[in-house]
Design goal:
- The protein has 234 residues and is α+β, with helices and mostly antiparallel strands.
- It has one domain.
- 38% of the residues lie in helices and 20% in strands.
- It has helices at 24-45, 51-56, 136-139, 146-155, 165-177, 179-198, 220-233; strands at 4-5, 10-11, 68-75, 80-85, 94-100, 115-122, 128-134, 212-217.
- The protein starts with a strand and ends with a helix.
- InterPro entries: DUF6969.
- It holds the Pfam family DUF6969.
- This is DUF6969 domain-containing protein.
Length: 234
């Protein structure tokens, strides 16, 4: 497998998940979440809206690197958080950065630094086209290993209606539906960091030459169909 470190990304193929390794209950939960995400897209599309547009309403000019909505979306009861922004260029319009932190980490009047779960690439029509993981410096996150990060991913949920109930429900559902992808990407992230450490590279988590560690293309429609097909034979 060819691999190289560029100024932008560790370039390496990441394996897609094998659904045969998941229990029927897990498959059913992921399938229900995929259908929920599709339903959120459907009700917005029915009136000419999309998931990203919901976040940009009333936010002024869309500027690279700015967080949308301003101040991020945060659920104080669950510890989940996300924002949308852009800076990578075509075919991506922008991406969601998705975070979570244990509620017990938050102190009165002080919100603890969250852990980055995954980023979701979106196209110009508000459709998800990929998932990727980032180096620590990119989001100034509290770095946790794969096991701890995946535990937080399983607990992610935005359970309120600001700034958009459909978008919040969609994002919560996407983390459940695509958990196998997140799992593959997160373990891959830790392996790559370990390989770089063994190679003698110093201060990897703050190295500005390493930004994106792994990425996979996704299609919600295709994934829902794949989950459905697997459930029919499980």
């Amino acid at each position: 497998m060819n691999k190289a470190i560029s100024s932008y990304c560790i370039v390496e193929d990441v394996r897609e998940p094998d659904l045969r390794t998941y229990e029927t209950d897990d498959l059913r939960r992921m399938h229900e979440a995929a259908r929920e995400a599709l339903e959120c897209q459907r009700v917005l599309k029915k009136v000419g809206l999309n998931l990203v547009g919901e976040l940009l309403k009333g936010q002024g000019s869309f500027l690279e690197y700015n967080h949308y909505p301003q101040g991020d979306v945060y659920d104080r009861e669950t510890g989940s958080q996300y924002y949308y922004h852009a800076h990578r260029g075509e075919p991506e319009h922008g991406h969601f950065h998705v975070f979570h932190r244990p509620v017990e980490d938050n102190r009165p009047g002080q919100v603890a630094n969250p852990t980055h779960i995954v980023a979701i690439s979106m196209d110009a029509w508000g459709e998800a086209i990929g998932l990727f993981t980032t180096n620590r410096w990119v989001t100034a996150e509290r770095w946790r290993n794969a096991e701890a990060t995946l535990k937080l991913a399983r607990e992610f949920k935005i359970d309120h209606a600001w700034p958009s109930w459909p978008t919040n429900r969609w994002l919560s559902a996407m983390i459940i539906a695509f958990y196998p992808y997140i799992e593959m990407l997160t373990w891959h992230r830790d392996r790559e960091i370990h390989h770089l450490e063994r190679s003698g590279l110093k201060v990897i988590l703050e190295n500005r030459e390493i930004e994106i560690i792994g990425q996979l293309p996704i299609s919600l429609v295709d994934w829902e169909a794949r989950l459905s097909a697997r459930l029919s034979v499980s």
